[in-house]
Amino acid sequence: MKNKLIFLILLLCSCTNKDELNGYVYDYDTELPLKNVYIVINDNKTQTDSTGFFCMNINLTSGCKIVLKKEGYTAKEIYRNPDSLGKFSKRSLKYNRFYMYNKESDFSK
C-alpha cells in the first residue's frame, strides 16, 4: 500500500505543467551582473539577486512574455514560445543570459 501511495505522488508531481525558468542578467557594456532587476513573466514578479540571478516558475505549455526593468536601463521584452511539441526543452529553461543596455549606451538609441 505504501509503494502505491509513493507511486501516485510521483505520478502527480510529474504531470504538472510548470517548471523553472532561470538565468542571469548582465550589463551589455561591462558584462557585470545586474542586481535588483525587476523581472515580470506572465504577471508573476521577481528580482535578481546580487549575482544577477533569478528563478521563476512558468507554465511549460504556453508562451511567455519576459519583461526586464531597471532604473537607468532600457526596458527589455522577450517573447518565448514552446517548441513544436508544445513544451519548452529543459535545456532552454536553465541558466539563460540576458543583457540590458544602459540608457547612456550607444546601443540603446
Low-confidence stretches: 10-17
Q: Tell me the span between the first and last alpha carbons.
A: 65 Å
Give me the count of strands. Answer: 7
Helix content: 10-25%
- Count of discrete domains: 1
* Basic shape: elongated
Taking all residues together, what is the mean pLDDT?
80
CATH architecture name? Sandwich
**What topology, given as strand order, has the largest sheet?**
3-2-5-6
Percent of residues in beta strands?
A: 35-45%
CATH topology: Immunoglobulin-like
Give structural notes:
The protein has 109 residues and is of the alpha+beta class. The protein has a single domain (18-108), classed as Immunoglobulin-like (Sandwich), CATH 2.60.40.1120. The chain has helices at 2-14, 90-93, and strands at residues 18-27, 38-41, 44-47, 53-59, 64-69, 76-80, 96-100. A hairpin with a 6-residue loop joins strand 5 and strand 6. Mean pLDDT is 80; it is low at 10-17.
Tags for this model:
109 residues, alpha+beta, Immunoglobulin-like, three-stranded mixed sheet, 16% helix
Helix/strand layout:
Blueprint: H1 2-14, E1 18-27, E2 38-41, E3 44-47, E4 53-59, E5 64-69, E6 76-80, H2 90-93, E7 96-100
Parallel strand pairs: 1-7
Antiparallel strand pairs: 1-4, 2-3, 2-5, 5-6
Short structural description:
This protein is an alpha+beta fold and 109 residues long.
